[in-house]
Amino acid sequence: MNTDPLSLSSLEDIALTAPPPFWPPAPGFWVLLLLLTGVIAVSLFYWYAYRQVGAYRRAGLILLAAAGSGREIDIVLKRVGLAAFPRETVAPLYGEEWGRFLDATCSRCEFGRLFSGSEPPLLEPYRQCAAQWIKYHTTTIPC
User: Fold this and answer.
1) What is the DSSP track for the chain?
2) What pLDDT digit, counting tens, does each position of 16-28 carry?
3) CA-based torsion, 105, 92, 79, 74: positive or negative
4) Cβ within 8 Å of residue 138, ≥6 positions away
5) 129 burial type by CB count under 10 A (0-12 exposed, 13-18 middle, 19+ buried)
6) Are 100 and 112 in contact (CB under 8 A)?
7) Can you give the pTM of this predicted structure?
8) pLDDT under 50 in the chain at which residues?
9) CA-CA distance, 65 to 130, in Å (whole number)?
10) For the chain, how big is the Rg over CA atoms in Å?
11) CB of 139 within 8 A of CB of 106?
């Protein structure tokens, strides 16, 4: 055996350190995870609140699709109106007053032209106008 310290036969391999462990993660990871969890929680809260605000509209559209006559469409419109506006404002309205109220709360539909004649309105145009009102009415009470 060679005892010369400068000899190449006395060299040893380089000792590598162990790789860093996967767990526990760095503190920055926990901060990022906490922020991400908070953002997701706040987003879910606002999404749920948004869904609850428009729930009566979705229910009204489902009822409107099942309505088979003009009277049933009237009942659906009145139910949606009672859900969106104070009962004291909506409950006593009927006839031309009800049509004016519907026209005043939604600029996209004209119930007045549907009720201009003495005969009842045609079912499909009435249903389409009612669907427009349910989707796009404003919840501010007209003067």
Assistant:
1) ----TT-GGG--PPPPPPPPPSSSPPHHHHHHHHHHHHHHHHHHHHHHHHHHHTHHHHHHHHHHHH--SHHHHHHHHHHHHHHHS-HHHHTT--HHHHHHHHHHH-SS--HHHHTSSSSPPPHHHHHHHHHHHHHH--SSPP-
2) 999 888 888 889 9
3) negative
4) 105, 106
5) buried
6) yes
7) 0.71
8) none
9) 10
10) 35
11) no
Q: Which two tokens stand for residue 132?
A: 């427009």
Among 143, 60, 59, which residue's Cα sits nearest to residue 104?
143
What CA–CA distance (Å, rounded) separates 75 from 93?
12
